[in-house]
Fold:
Amino acid sequence: MKTLTLEKVVIFSALIHPSFALPNFIKGLLYLQDPATITSSIPGIQTASTDIQPSPVGINTALNTTGHITLAPVTTTAINTLQSVLPTALTTPLIPSFPSPLARLSPNILVPIATTAPPPQFQNAPKHPVPRSNIQGSGPLQTNKFYGNFYLGSQSNSLWTHPYSLAKTCTTSSCGIAVSHIERSQTAFAAGNPAPYFVNPIGIHSIVFGAAELGAGTSMTLSELDEFSANVHLAPTVGAAQVLTMPVVQGMGFVTGVYSSAQPVLMSGVFFSNLTLVSTDGGGADRVVKWRIGLLDGTSWLLYVRTDNPTNAPFLLQDSKTIIGPLGFSGTVQVAKCASTGMEQFYDSAAGAYATGGSVSASADGDVGTYTISWTKGGPASRRLLMFALPHHVESFDAATRAALTGLQMQTTTKGMATAVLAETITMVEDHMPVDVLYDAAPANGALKVASAAAQTAIVRAASIELAEDIFEQTNMNSTYWNGKALAKFAMIIYATYAKGGDHDLAAAGLKNLTTAFAYFVDNTRQYPLLYDNDWKGIISSAVFATGDTGADYGNSLYNDHHFHYGYFVYAASVLAYFDPLWLTKGTNKVWVDTLVRDYANPVTTDPYFPFSRMFDWYHGHSWAQGLYESADGKNEESTSEDVFSLYAMKLWGKTTGDENMEARGNLQLAVLRRSLQNYFLMESSNKNQPPQFIGNKACGIMFENKIDHTTYFGAKPEYVEGIHMLPLSPASPYTRSQAFVSEEWQTYFSDGRAQNTDVAWRSILYANLAIADPRASWLYFTSPSFDMASLDSGASLTWYLAFVAGLGGS
Structure:
C-alpha cells in the first residue's frame, strides 16, 4: 500500500578462511586482485589458488515502501447520514435468485470471459509513466510477475525462480547473469523471540554466466513474458544480435544459458577452487559433457555443456574468478548446485534438457478441482525435465505426479524446501473446494447456523442506522480502494438485512441506493475515473495523471493491489445481480464488471486486451500485490485476506451471471490459495515450512520473494500486522483461516483483555475474526451495551458483523 522509509542495516567486516562456509548477512563479494595459478590442464582436475579472500560488505534490510501507502487501510472518521430513517414505502420487492448456467462447464475451466475491447467509458490513458523498456514484442504484458526487476528501472535487482535467484551484474569490463542459492544457515534473523523478520542475503554471485563478447555496454532485454517464464537476452550493445539467452522459469532445476556463436565465460564472486571433468556422456547429438565446480565457500556445483559439435566443448579454469569456454560456441551451458553426490543421478538424467516456458490448465467436478502445470522443453527430447515443486504442490500431487518425485530437495528463500520432480507436467488436486460458500457465513466444517430471534432484531436495528448513512459521500472518495470498500460494505449490509434480519423492505431500500451509487462507477464519473492503459494493457486509476504521484491511490496506476481494489466492486456487483437479475441486462453493467475481472483474473492468454492472471501466481498459489516498482527483495503481498476476497468475489460474480467456468475457477483458486496461506502465511505452531524462529509471529506480515517482515507499511502493532490478514471478514474467511490458527493467534496477541487495548479502528476486526474460533465470545462483544460504534472502521458494519457471527453460531 504506499511510502515510508524504515532502514535496518547490518554491516559486517570479516576475514573468511576458505575452509569455512560463508557467514550470514553477505551483501556482496568484492574482488581485490587475483594471483591465482592453474596447476593442471584439461582433461582432469583443474585447480586455482589465491592469496585474497572474498570481502563481505553487509546486507540492507530496509523495508522499501515505494508505491505503498503508509496510512492504515481502516478509518473511523465521522459518518454522515442521508436521513435518520431510510424510507421503504416505494421500494420494489426483492426476488433474489441465481440464474441457470449459460453453458456447460468446460473440460478446461480456463476459458475466455471476453476478448472484445473494454467498454468506451474506459477512455484511453495517456502514455504510462513507466515505459515498456527492455522488452521485445507487443501485446498485453505481465506487470506483477517474478521477472519484473529484469525490465524495470536499473535492471540491477534480482529475480527468484526458486530455489535459485538471478541478477544482472556488471563490472567496467564485463556483464553477465549471476546465479545464487541461499541455505537457511545464511539467513539473517532480527533479534527477538520470535524474530520480527528474516532476510536472505543478495549479491552472493556463486556462478556468473557471461561471454567474452559481453562488455560494460551489454544490453539486457526480455521476450516471451508469460505466466511462469521469460527469456532473458544479452547482447554486446543495444540493437546488436544477442549472444546469450537464458530462459528463466519458476522451479527450473538447472540455470541454463543458450549461447549463439560466442565464447562462454563463467565467473564467480565466491571464487573457483577447482574444475573437474567428470564425464562426456557418450556420443552423438545428445552428448552432454559434465564438469564439477568447487567454490571457495565449500559448495559444489555441476556444469553440463551440450553443443551440436561435441568436440568443441573444452572449458578451462583460467583463474579463481574465471572459467572460459571455446570460441564461436553455440549450444547450452547449465549449472546446478549439488548438495551431495548421491543426488547427482537426478541431474545427470535430465542434463541437456531445460524448461523454456509453462502453462496451466484446470478442471472441476463437484467440490474436486484439478490443475496441471505443463512446461515446454528445449534440448534432447529423450531427456526428462528436472523441475522443483513447492511444499503446497507436493502436498496435493496426484498419484502420477507423486511417482515422479525424487529425493532431491533445496532450500527456498520464503517457501520452505523445494522438491525436485522428473516430469514435464505436475498435477495437483484440491478435493475440498468451497462450492457451498456463498453469501452466508458458516463454520468451515459445519452447517449454517440459524440466527436467533434476538439476532434478527439486533441485525435490523443496526441496519436501520447504517443503511441511512450517506452512501454517495462514502463512495465519492479520491481512492478506488476506498470507494470499492464502501460499495462492498453496503452490499454486505443489504444481504444481511434481507437474509439474516428478514427485513425485506429495508434491504430493498438499501439496494436502490446501492444501484444508484454503483452507476456512477459504471458511467465512470467519480473522482479519478478508471482508464484503459494501452501500454501495459490494463484498467488503471487516473490518479497518477491528476497528481503526478506514482503512489497515489495505493499505486493502482502502476498496477499495485488491483485484486484488492476491484474485488470489492465485483462483490458489490454480485449482490446487485443476485437481488435484481435484470440489472445485468441494463446498459454496460455486466461488461463493466467483467472488464475488472479480466484485468486482475483473466483466465486466458489469447485476450488481446489483458494479460493472463495478472495478480494470481499459479506457481506460488497466491497473488503478488506489487506492480511496476523495482524492489531489492522482489514482489510482495501484505493482505492475504483481500486476496481471498478478490477470488471469492469472482466466484460469486460467476454464480450470479451464470458463468459456471468463472465460478469453478473461483472455487479452485480459493482452494489453492487456502493451501498456500496455511503453508506459508498463516503459521500454526505445527508449521514446517517457515523457520522455527519466525512461526511464533502467527501471520507472516509482508511476504516478499526474498524475505518476510512481520510488519505492515503503516506500522508494526500486532493488530495491524495480524488484522491486515483478516479484513474484510467474509464467508470465505472461515474456509481459509483455520480455527486452530485463529485460536493460536488470539492467545498470542489478544487474549486476557489485551484486545481492548488495541487501536480502536481495528478492535471490531479482531473480534469478528475471533468468531471463527469462539463465536459466542465474539457475539457478546458486538451485542454488549457498551459496544462502541467507533470501533468499526468505515469499511465495515455492525450489521454484517452480527450476521457473520450469527452464521457461525454466536447467537
About this structure: DSSP finds 19 helices and 35 strands in the chain. The longest strand covers residues 354-365. Residues 67 and 555 are 5 Å apart (CA to CA). Residues 1-42, 52-58 have pLDDT under 50 and may be disordered.
